[in-house]
Amino acid sequence: MTIKFKSLLFVLFIAIISISSCKKDDDADRPVTEVDKGSIFPDKVVFNLTKKNDSTYTRSFAYNLPSSSSNVRDTIVFPIDTNSSLATYNCTLEFFENNVNKTDAIRSLGTRYMICFKDFSTNDLSVAVKEFDSKGIALSLTTEWKAKLKNVNGNIRITLNYNQQEKIGTCDTGSRIVEIWFPYKTIED
User: What residues contact residue 170 under an 8 Å CB cut-off, 6+ apart?
Assistant: First the structure.
């Protein structure tokens, strides 16, 4: 036998021993652990908007999640006065599950829930949090919005996250309970 053939046999022998010594993956036998997502599973979000300098302008905009039986997806409208370059609004969010308002339940467990607003153009809008939990971390059920530019369209991504322990103030931690892309437009009024 040549040296090449002996080397090849040796490598083949080592490969067979290596493969046969592999044991079954232990992860396959482990039960899947469910992630704790809390007990509130909203199927509708309502964005209530009141113009700060004109309380007669109060509007509600609804967004039903795909799990809902309804397909309502309003567009949030931020009117800006013709003679102004900025409009300020007070906003409250409400979360519903099977037509039951769960907002107070979220508020009472505020150290575990966090609402975040993302992916909108900060050239068009800005948001300031006005409601915090008992630890001083943003809860964001109440906010203040400023519309800066007229006649623009976009989307606001709103998320509701739940943390089994206590939230740490970061939007991307915990279990995502709600994620919606709420359309908006600013108009000249």
Answer: none
Cα 52 to Cα 50: distance, rounded to the nearest angstrom: 6
How much is the CA Rg of the chain, to the nearest whole Å?
A: 26
Owner of token pair 């915990």: 174
What is the bridge-based pairing of β-strands 125-129 and 142-147? antiparallel
26-to-23, 30, 52, 69 alpha-carbon distances in Å: 9, 7, 60, 42
User: Which single residue is written with the structure tokens 């509007």?
Assistant: 59
Structural contact between residues 115 and 141, judged by C-beta atoms closer than 8 angstroms: yes
What single letter denotes the amino acid at residue 128? A
d(CA 114, CA 99): 21
Distance CA 113, CA 108 (A): 10
Q: Are 159 and 106 in contact (CB under 8 A)?
A: no
Model pTM greater than 0.90?
A: no
In the chain the domains, ranked by start, together with CATH numbers, are 44-188 (2.60.40)
33-84 tens-digit pLDDT: 556 678 899 999 999 999 998 889 899 999 998 776 677 889 999 998 888 8
Q: Is 84 helix (H, G, I), strand (E, B) or coil?
A: coil
pLDDT in tens, 123-152: 889 999 999 999 898 999 999 999 988 888
